Protein backbone atom coordinates (compact mmCIF):
# COMPACT_ATOMS: atom_id res chain seq x y z
CA UNK A 1 0.00 0.00 0.00
CA UNK A 2 1.08 3.59 -0.35
CA UNK A 3 0.68 7.02 1.12
CA UNK A 4 -2.70 7.78 -0.46
CA UNK A 5 -4.58 5.13 1.48
CA UNK A 6 -2.85 5.90 4.80
CA UNK A 7 -1.37 2.44 5.33
CA UNK A 8 2.28 1.75 5.96
CA UNK A 9 3.02 5.41 6.67
CA UNK A 10 5.90 4.95 9.02
CA UNK A 11 5.72 5.72 12.72
CA UNK A 12 2.61 5.07 14.78
CA UNK A 13 2.79 8.66 16.03
CA UNK A 14 1.28 9.95 12.75
CA UNK A 15 -1.03 7.01 12.08
CA UNK A 16 -4.02 8.62 13.84
CA UNK A 17 -3.80 11.77 11.73
CA UNK A 18 -3.35 10.07 8.34
CA UNK A 19 -7.03 9.28 7.59
CA UNK A 20 -7.87 12.99 7.94
CA UNK A 21 -4.85 14.00 5.86
CA UNK A 22 -5.68 11.24 3.40
CA UNK A 23 -9.26 12.52 2.94
CA UNK A 24 -8.02 16.11 2.54
CA UNK A 25 -5.51 15.01 -0.09
CA UNK A 26 -8.17 13.20 -2.07
CA UNK A 27 -10.54 16.16 -1.84
CA UNK A 28 -7.78 18.55 -2.90
CA UNK A 29 -6.90 16.35 -5.85
CA UNK A 30 -10.53 16.33 -6.96
CA UNK A 31 -10.89 20.09 -6.59
CA UNK A 32 -7.75 21.11 -8.47
CA UNK A 33 -9.21 20.67 -11.98
CA UNK A 34 -12.41 22.43 -10.93
CA UNK A 35 -10.48 25.35 -9.40
CA UNK A 36 -8.34 25.65 -12.52
CA UNK A 37 -11.44 25.80 -14.71
CA UNK A 38 -12.95 28.51 -12.50
CA UNK A 39 -9.76 30.59 -12.66
CA UNK A 40 -9.55 30.26 -16.45
CA UNK A 41 -13.22 31.21 -16.85
CA UNK A 42 -12.89 34.16 -14.49
CA UNK A 43 -9.87 35.49 -16.35
CA UNK A 44 -11.48 35.16 -19.75
CA UNK A 45 -13.17 38.24 -21.15
CA UNK A 46 -15.12 36.25 -23.65
CA UNK A 47 -18.80 35.49 -23.33
CA UNK A 48 -20.40 32.28 -24.46
CA UNK A 49 -18.97 30.84 -27.64
CA UNK A 50 -20.41 32.45 -30.73
CA UNK A 51 -22.50 30.04 -32.76
CA UNK A 52 -21.40 30.17 -36.36
CA UNK A 53 -17.80 30.99 -35.47
CA UNK A 54 -15.46 32.17 -38.19
CA UNK A 55 -18.08 32.17 -40.92
CA UNK A 56 -19.87 35.10 -39.31
CA UNK A 57 -16.80 37.28 -39.80
CA UNK A 58 -15.50 35.97 -43.12
CA UNK A 59 -16.54 38.63 -45.62
CA UNK A 60 -14.54 38.06 -48.80
CA UNK A 61 -15.73 35.97 -51.72
CA UNK A 62 -13.00 33.33 -51.64
CA UNK A 63 -14.13 29.70 -51.83
CA UNK A 64 -12.89 29.20 -48.25
CA UNK A 65 -14.97 32.12 -46.95
CA UNK A 66 -18.04 31.01 -48.85
CA UNK A 67 -17.69 27.53 -47.32
CA UNK A 68 -17.28 29.01 -43.83
CA UNK A 69 -20.36 31.19 -44.25
CA UNK A 70 -22.36 28.22 -45.50
CA UNK A 71 -21.25 26.18 -42.49
CA UNK A 72 -22.06 29.06 -40.12
CA UNK A 73 -25.54 29.42 -41.63
CA UNK A 74 -26.14 25.69 -41.11
CA UNK A 75 -24.97 26.05 -37.48
CA UNK A 76 -27.44 28.87 -36.84
CA UNK A 77 -30.30 27.04 -38.53
CA UNK A 78 -29.57 23.86 -36.55
CA UNK A 79 -29.40 25.63 -33.17
CA UNK A 80 -32.67 24.57 -31.52
CA UNK A 81 -32.25 27.07 -28.65
CA UNK A 82 -31.67 29.96 -31.06
CA UNK A 83 -29.32 31.42 -28.46
CA UNK A 84 -27.41 33.23 -31.21
CA UNK A 85 -30.33 35.62 -31.60
CA UNK A 86 -29.44 37.31 -28.32
CA UNK A 87 -25.73 37.54 -29.08
CA UNK A 88 -24.86 41.05 -30.27
CA UNK A 89 -23.53 41.05 -33.85
CA UNK A 90 -20.39 42.80 -35.02
CA UNK A 91 -20.14 44.80 -38.24
CA UNK A 92 -18.47 41.88 -40.00
CA UNK A 93 -21.44 39.67 -39.10
CA UNK A 94 -23.71 42.14 -40.91
CA UNK A 95 -21.32 42.22 -43.89
CA UNK A 96 -21.10 38.42 -44.09
CA UNK A 97 -24.91 38.23 -44.17
CA UNK A 98 -24.98 34.94 -42.28
CA UNK A 99 -27.20 36.08 -39.41
CA UNK A 100 -29.48 38.02 -41.74
CA UNK A 101 -29.92 35.01 -44.03
CA UNK A 102 -30.66 32.87 -40.97
CA UNK A 103 -33.39 35.34 -39.99
CA UNK A 104 -34.85 35.14 -43.51
CA UNK A 105 -34.94 31.34 -43.30
CA UNK A 106 -36.21 31.16 -39.71
CA UNK A 107 -38.70 34.05 -39.68
CA UNK A 108 -41.79 31.80 -39.61
CA UNK A 109 -40.37 29.83 -36.66
CA UNK A 110 -39.42 32.82 -34.52
CA UNK A 111 -41.71 33.85 -31.68
CA UNK A 112 -42.76 37.49 -31.40
CA UNK A 113 -39.96 38.42 -29.00
CA UNK A 114 -37.35 36.84 -31.28
CA UNK A 115 -38.88 38.59 -34.30
CA UNK A 116 -38.56 41.93 -32.51
CA UNK A 117 -34.92 41.25 -31.61
CA UNK A 118 -34.24 40.23 -35.22
CA UNK A 119 -36.00 43.33 -36.58
CA UNK A 120 -33.98 45.61 -34.31
CA UNK A 121 -30.80 43.88 -35.43
CA UNK A 122 -31.66 44.19 -39.12
CA UNK A 123 -32.71 47.82 -38.69
CA UNK A 124 -29.43 48.63 -36.91
CA UNK A 125 -27.35 47.04 -39.68
CA UNK A 126 -26.94 50.04 -42.00
CA UNK A 127 -25.79 52.36 -39.20
CA UNK A 128 -23.34 49.77 -37.82
CA UNK A 129 -21.90 49.05 -41.27
CA UNK A 130 -21.49 52.76 -42.07
CA UNK A 131 -20.14 53.61 -38.62
CA UNK A 132 -16.70 53.23 -37.05
CA UNK A 133 -17.12 49.46 -36.61
CA UNK A 134 -17.42 49.06 -40.37
CA UNK A 135 -14.24 50.98 -41.25
CA UNK A 136 -12.34 47.75 -42.03
CA UNK A 137 -14.92 46.77 -44.68
CA UNK A 138 -14.88 47.72 -48.36
CA UNK A 139 -17.57 49.99 -49.77
CA UNK A 140 -18.96 47.00 -51.70
CA UNK A 141 -19.20 44.89 -48.54
CA UNK A 142 -20.94 47.74 -46.75
CA UNK A 143 -23.38 48.32 -49.63
CA UNK A 144 -24.30 44.61 -49.86
CA UNK A 145 -24.73 44.39 -46.08
CA UNK A 146 -26.93 47.51 -46.01
CA UNK A 147 -29.16 46.22 -48.83
CA UNK A 148 -29.51 42.81 -47.20
CA UNK A 149 -30.24 44.31 -43.77
CA UNK A 150 -32.95 46.54 -45.25
CA UNK A 151 -34.52 43.65 -47.17
CA UNK A 152 -34.50 41.35 -44.14
CA UNK A 153 -35.84 44.14 -41.92
CA UNK A 154 -38.82 44.57 -44.26
CA UNK A 155 -39.49 40.81 -44.34
CA UNK A 156 -39.29 40.52 -40.56
CA UNK A 157 -41.62 43.51 -40.12
CA UNK A 158 -44.14 41.94 -42.50
CA UNK A 159 -43.94 38.65 -40.58
CA UNK A 160 -44.30 40.41 -37.23
CA UNK A 161 -47.36 42.34 -38.44
CA UNK A 162 -49.04 39.06 -39.40
CA UNK A 163 -48.53 37.40 -36.03
CA UNK A 164 -47.55 39.91 -33.36
CA UNK A 165 -48.59 43.21 -31.87
CA UNK A 166 -46.35 45.70 -33.64
Outline:
The protein has 166 residues and is mostly helical. The chain has helices at residues 18-43, 63-78, 91-96, 98-106, 112-130, 139-163.
Provide the β-strand percentage band. Answer: under 5%
Q: Averaging pLDDT over every residue, what do you get?
A: 77
- Strand/helix succession: HHHHHH
Which structural class do you get from the secondary structure elements? mainly alpha
User: Stretches where pLDDT falls below 50 for ≥5 residues?
Assistant: 1-12, 27-49
Give a description of the structure:
By secondary structure, the chain is mainly α. The protein folds into two domains: 3-43, no CATH class; 53-163, Up-down Bundle (de novo design (two linked rop proteins)). Helix content is 61%, strand content 0%. It contains six helices and no strands. It has helices at residues 18-43, 63-78, 91-96, 98-106, 112-130, 139-163. The protein is globular, with a radius of gyration of 26 Å. The relative contact order is 0.09.
